[in-house]
Amino acid sequence: MGESAWDRADDFSDPRLEWKLRAIAVPAAFALALAFHASPLGHQIQRIWLSMIVHESGHATAALLSGFKAVPTLWKTILSAERAWYVTALVAGLDLALIVRWWQADKRIWAGVAAAVLVVQAWWTFGLSVDEAHALVTFAGDGGGMVLGSVLVCTFFAGRDTQLYRGMLRWGFLAIGAAAFVDTFATWWTAQDDPSVIPFGEIEGVGLSDPSKLRALHGWSTADLVDRYVLLGEACLVVLVVVWAWQTRAAVVRAKLSA
Fold it and tell me: What pTM was computed for the model?
């Protein structure tokens, strides 16, 4: 197996600086996101300009992987009522192309991730009924806020040969990902003791909020909502801590090798 961009010893122009950035930047981004979340004005800014984009992308991603047409907008994801076979074909074709490309480039880990996505697509498209899939897509708003937010945070560890590193995009994605994760997870964590923070009700120009849809249309209880979102958030946190610790340690090793 070839070395990934994360494993090469000469991956960064200043390895001694890189391990410090990795050790500090991710916790600092989460601390800043928590500070914004604690402020009413900061929370509003965080929700409108950062986390809402990831939230709607979560809806759209789950919809496309379930075979529905979907277009995310700022406050609403436009979603088809029924599945479309060509959506499934296009998504599967793109995923297969990525698997082949990454496998040929000896990026076996990324090829494995793409293969896992293909399995998820098959399950969500052929293993779930239309009603079950719609419930999943609704759940994937806040669920996507945590999962996609975590993915964005992990892009901070991209190697120097990527545009994420060269174009400084990893810093922006880190800020967006941390904001999306904290904004979403903090709400559901608080809801364990204070269900009043759950955004039940109707959104003007949009319709029922996601929690209201899941409760009224799909029969989820309030306890179901809280437990499932908190469990997903905790799983994302575990992954984030493991990746952060692994990549920071790898950067420390590179720094020692370059000394």
Answer: 0.88
